[in-house]
Amino acid sequence: MGIVHLNGQLLPEEQAKIPVTDRGFLFGDGVYEVIPAYAGNFFHLDEHLARLQNSLDGVHISNPHSSAQWRQLLKQLLNANHANKADYSIYLQITRGSAARREHAFPQETHPTVFASATPIIKPSDETYAQGISAITLEDTRWKQCHIKAISLLPNILLRQQAVEAGAAEAILLKEGYLTEGAASNVFIVLKDEILTPPKSAELLPGITRDVVLELTQQQGLNSREAQISEQQLREASEIWVTSSTREILAVTQLDDQPVGKGKPGPLWSRIYADYQTFKKQLRQPATR
Ligand SMILES: Cc1ncc(COP(=O)(O)O)c(C=O)c1O
Known about the structure:
Number of domains: 2
Shape: globular
CATH architecture of the largest domain: Alpha-Beta Barrel
CATH class of the largest domain: Alpha Beta
Largest sheet: 9 strands, mixed
Distance between the termini: 28 Å
CATH superfamily of the largest domain: D-amino Acid Aminotransferase, subunit A, domain 2
Bound molecules: pyridoxal-5'-phosphate
Radius of gyration: 20 Å
Number of strands: 15
């Protein structure tokens, strides 16, 4: 059982309790982050904290900590879990806190609830990376503020579940005929030797992995850019990738039961995946902290 952070305290997970009046529990009124830490080194912590700030601003919860305080708090959490050698994923959640009455509008005075845990990253198997995954397309039924990393994930859960029940690993979402993102990932396609991903907007979460992948493609001198992607372009793509902090970059080799390209991870995926692993390896070295 791990050690978690709850409102300024480090304690065993089974002892961490929140009141049933917490608005996170009652309304899903809160935001979260998922931050990888490789051998104790945070992966793009500043970018994760900047996105957290945007999410907090989006739901009008004031940030309970400065960046320096967050860094210290999360470092203490890693240390308490002896998480400085392996790869860990930090889950960080802030809710609007508790109120005496269950009312939709914000209570007058609130004290945000801060929770963070660190668990070992369980990456997909080497075989999964080598073979790629299957995905299905679904209509994006979520709300209009998908750039906020809100804990109220019911639509994402239902979409991912629909994919799993169809034997697929991810749902790729389309809104009015255009690609937005995955149920829990961003999406890239390779179309006529160009690497494309939808531009940031309120229709998708600005993934930290997405930004890193885009940067890696540009460092490699590959042809990559942000662009609206139609359903037809998605179906014509020779490669499709999904990106996220814990699954990194996975090739989608089957879309709606049709092979993507040759039905196996493509050459550009192999290149960027290898670069990503090199980037992670460098991050594990203490000298690059
Ligand atoms: C809806 C959605 N889009 C994109 C992502 C990828 O974001 P990141 O690369 O920061 O993990 C996630 C991650 O969980 C997500 O839930």
